[in-house]
Structure to design on (459 residues):
């Protein structure tokens, strides 16, 4: 009887003082979701409880938790996260020691007994590009932004072989934008490239890709350029570049590039140039470039920490066509049967890229290209004047602000992008002005021509 009375008094005291006896590591589900349609907003607002109701619900939840402390809480893998405010799971520049699984520890113990040397503990931190935990030296090292062509054939003839891209699946971020001919080109941002031997074919430069590379303090890699629009910029001290020898490049890194005609047999010459990743470090050192991120670097993307941003209640989207499904000249249209789009795999939580009626595949490992997040950045675009008759050079306003659509976990968040200067980060905000939280993993960013954005289709 005395024991029961003691428990009752203790529970009452805890309730009156607002204390909780939940263990510190109990999973917490944070409420709130980003903006979607106005109808959904109205419905959400009508369902929002008053502060008194919230207080009562919180008290009720605490009481329930107190009653169930004897049971172990199940591990929550998918937890809805808010899109703004102090509770955001911002990736901090925290360094920790990588935990080892028992199998690794056993193997290392055996290796230590054989060599007599103890392996150093690996320090890891969250990547600025993916939010994933990686080796601290990899995370702090500046990424390389490599240009890739994107098309059906590796040449200008109808009989040219199919184009294949080598190493693109290892990019942490892929940028895509329209180029002349009303197709697109790609730029892959690589941070964890030590085990790669080559990347390519390496494509020529357009200035709006350089400005996007500046947002991530990248070392820019190219082979050729639209000279009239790029030469002054790429030879300035505004961008650190490792460039193959070509007309207009003041200081090239010839040893870091080579031609290989066997990777894509019978390919046109423009599709035979590759970056020799094993020679990249020598090229960077020869240029005396800073190897780690500089003080001016700002982290552009905000990532969920070790939980997942589910965005429950948001509109579900499983297919995305940046240029619609029909013919148009916006770069992502169904030109020459390209029909570029993304399809969401709910089991793997990945968006796979499709074009020309099939998945985009990396020639290095024959893997489909899948990313965790897709961003459509709507930018004003126009044909450049003066222009060369045989070309169709374009310009895009990648500075300033504009509309954007962010896709993650099968949901869509409408918002705005903002880039204040050449080296300024490319921030993503929801319609309430909160920075959008991406899920950990790779991101594909499409620069969508605003004047053709009416063709954008999703379902």
């Amino acid at each position: 009887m005395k024991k029961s009375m003691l428990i009752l008094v203790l529970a009452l005291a805890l309730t009156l003082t607002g204390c909780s006896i939940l263990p510190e590591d109990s999973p917490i589900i944070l409420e709130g979701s980003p903006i979607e349609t106005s109808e959904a907003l109205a419905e959400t607002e009508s369902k929002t409880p008053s502060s008194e109701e919230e207080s009562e619900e919180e008290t009720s939840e605490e009481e329930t938790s107190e009653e169930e402390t004897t049971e172990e809480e199940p591990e929550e893998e998918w937890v809805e996260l808010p899109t703004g405010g102090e509770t955001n799971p911002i990736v901090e520049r925290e360094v920790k020691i990588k935990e080892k699984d028992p199998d690794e520890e056993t193997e290392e113990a055996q290796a230590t007994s054989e060599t007599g040397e103890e392996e150093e503990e690996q320090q890891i931190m969250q990547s600025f590009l993916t939010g994933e935990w990686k080796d601290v030296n990899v995370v702090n090292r500046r990424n390389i932004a490599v240009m890739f062509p994107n098309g059906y054939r590796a040449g200008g003839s109808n009989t040219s072989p199919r184009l294949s891209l080598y190493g693109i699946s290892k990019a942490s971020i892929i940028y895509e934008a329209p180029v002349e001919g009303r197709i697109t080109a790609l730029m892959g941002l690589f941070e964890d490239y030590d085990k790669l031997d080559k990347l390519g074919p390496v494509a020529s430069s357009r200035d709006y890709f350089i400005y996007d590379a500046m947002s991530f303090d990248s070392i820019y890699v190219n082979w050729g350029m639209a000279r009239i629009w790029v030469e002054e910029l790429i030879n300035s001290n505004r961008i650190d570049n490792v460039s193959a020898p070509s007309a207009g490049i003041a200081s090239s890194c010839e040893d870091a590039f080579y031609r290989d005609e066997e990777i894509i047999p019978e390919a046109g010459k423009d599709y035979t140039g590759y970056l020799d990743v094993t020679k990249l470090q020598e090229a960077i050192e020869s240029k005396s470039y800073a190897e780690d991120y500089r003080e001016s670097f700002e982290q552009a993307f905000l990532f969920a920490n070790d939980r997942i941003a589910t965005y429950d209640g948001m509109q579900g989207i499983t297919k995305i066509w940046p240029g619609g499904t029909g013919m148009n000249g916006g770069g992502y249209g169904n030109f020459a049967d390209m029909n570029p789009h993304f399809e969401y795999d709910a089991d793997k939580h990945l968006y796979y890229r499709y074009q020309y009626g099939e998945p985009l595949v990396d020639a290095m490992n024959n893997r489909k290209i899948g990313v965790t997040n897709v961003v459509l950045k709507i930018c004003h675009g126009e044909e450049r004047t003066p222009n060369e008759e045989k070309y169709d050079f374009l310009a895009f306003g990648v500075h300033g602000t504009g509309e954007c659509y962010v896709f993650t976990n099968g949901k869509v968040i409408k918002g705005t992008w903002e880039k204040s200067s050449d080296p300024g980060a490319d921030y993503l905000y929801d319609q309430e002005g909160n920075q959008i939280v991406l899920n950990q993993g790779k991101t594909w960013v499409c620069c969508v021509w605003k004047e053709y954005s009416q063709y954008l289709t999703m379902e």
User: Anything to note?
Assistant: Residues 51-67 form the longest helix (17 residues). The two ends are 64 Å apart (CA to CA). Confidence is low (pLDDT under 50) at residues 1-91.
